[in-house]
Every structure is written in C-alpha cells, then in structure tokens.
Amino acid sequence: MLGFVKAFSYQSTISQTLARGLHVDADQCRALCSHLYSLIRVNRQNRRSFINLLIRSFQQVKKAELSYLLFVADSLTSFPYAVLDEPLFVIHVVDKVASSRASTLLELFNEVLVYGRSSDAVKNIEDIETADELQSSLPNLSWEKFGACVVSSHQCRLLFELKSHLKETFGFTEGKCRKYSPSEPAKVNEKPLTKRSAHVFEPRRVIQAVEQQHSGRPLLNKIDLLDQYLEFRQLAMSVESAGDEECAGSDGEAAATNDHPSQQASGQSAAAGKKRRRSSVNGSRTPSSNSKRQKTGTGSERKKQKKRRKSAVMSSDDEELDPDFSSR
User: Fold this and answer.
1) Residue 314 CA from chain centroid, whole number
2) What is the distance between the terminal CA atoms of the chain, rounded to a whole angstrom?
3) By C-alpha distance, which of 93, 91, 47, 65 is closest to 8?
4) Does the pLDDT of residue 178 top 80, yes or no?
5) Do 123 and 138 touch, CB atoms closer than 8 A?
6) CB neighbours of 196 closer than 8 A, spacing ≥ 6?
7) How far apart are CA 263 and CA 254, in angstroms?
8) Using CB atoms within 10 A of its CB, is residue 218 exposed (0-12), middle (13-18) or buried (19+)?
9) Where residue 10 falls among pLDDT bands split at 50, 70, 90?
C-alpha cells in the first residue's frame, strides 16, 4: 500500500495538470500501477486485502483528498484483471461502501434543504426535478452547508461511476453482481475474463471538482450546485432501483424454477410410498407362507408319532395274546 501512495505522490509531482492513475495508449487503457497489482494478484487473499485497502480510502472523508481518490478509481478501472473474481470483488466492496455513504449523504442533504425551504412551498423537495424550481422553493438555504454536502458527494459519486464502468467494460448485469459472494469456492469465479468494451474512465464532475480545488477557484454558482445535487440524487436512486428490479426478477425466476423440483419431489415421494406399500404387502405374505410351512412340518411329525404309537399298541396286543407270555 505504501508503494501505491508513493506512486500517487510521484505522479502528482511530475504532472502539470491533474494526476491520473491510468495511461491511455491508442484504444488501450492501463493503470500506472499495473506491475504492482500483477505481483499481488497471484495470491487471492493478498489481492483482496489490497483492493479492500484501496476502496476503504473512500470512507476516510476528512483524510483522503479527492485527487487521491480519483487516482485510486483510475487504477481500479484499469488494473490487468484476468479472472471473474477480480472485478466482481471490486464491485462487491464498492457496493457496500457506496450504499452506506449514499444514504448518509442524502440525509445530510435533506436536513440542509428542509431548513432552507419556504414555509408556503407546495411540492416536496423529492418531487422537484429542476434546479430553477428547487432554488425558488429554498429562499433560506445555507449555501455554505449545501456546497459542503456537494463536495462530500463527489467521493460517493466516484464509487458509483467506478462500478458502472466495470459493469460496462466486462458486460456484468446488476443481478450477476448481486449474486456474487466472496465466500464461494475459488473455482467458481476463477474463470478467464474478457473485456466487452475499452472506453476510458472519465468521471467529468469529479475531474471538474479536483481541478477547481487545485486552482483555488471559488465554488460553482448556485444553479450548478443544485444541478450536481439533482444528478447525485438521481444516480443514487437509479442504482438502488436497478438492484431492486434485478433482485425481484431473480426471485421470480427462482420461484418458477422451484415449482418444478417440488413436483419432482412429490412424484418421488409418491413412488417411494408405492414401494413401501408393495414391500409391506410382500412382507405380510412371507410370514403366512412360513407359517404354512411350519404347519405342514408339524403335521408330518404328528403322523409319524401316530404310526409309532400304533406300532407300540399292536406290539403290546400281540404280547397279551401270546400264550407263552406269562411263562416268560
């Protein structure tokens, strides 16, 4: 991580305008720290730790400069990714950080806007879609606080644009990004990766804000600040609604596919029930046949006993009829 920070410092020193973390050569775009990432990416755990550290920089609101975060985003969009797990893991971590930051920022915006709202305003602030109409309904707005919220929103906006760029570059859908889990076995997502497009990462609003900070120019006019707020609000809502639609679609497909296995399970249970009934019938027949065999066996023994008894009686009768029996 120290080497990455030093690379940013060096690039900031030699750059005459803006320190970018990527280099554009014809239609190819590569990160300036590509060699550093190539050494780390071989080990999955080290690679993920490095990506986590880079993206967690966006949570350090007061410490991290917007120019450094732009350098980080440039690198994350143009690292030499080779397997599916790499950009999907980046999107996974970006989603976590961006969602928490976006909800916090929207709450801050609402607090500032509520205090600046006119008492006789008819429309809700969330229903206003133009900067002119929004300005007319906010006569008591503190532009200093509102401008600070706009500056803070650039970090979260940069994360949203980073995610959108990776999805477009590699052809990922929102559903595929939501289904990804870092705890899955390595073989699941260690598949070769191909780029669908090779456009350059250009977050226009963020670049404009960084150039403005470096030049020391004052904040933009009121209409531009309101336009940036409306753009950020629309971007946050569109990302959230896209995720809800994808999740709803995947839930519907899962429910449809689950109907068929349940029918198969019921058919299998019915077949199993038939087998059990057959086995019970066969089992019930077996003891009866055995009892018959036992009965026949005992009957033959009885006949033999009767014959032995008859022979014994006949021999005793002969002894009684024998005249010399008494003399014996």
Assistant:
1) 98
2) 127
3) 65
4) yes
5) no
6) 168, 169, 170, 171
7) 15
8) exposed
9) confident
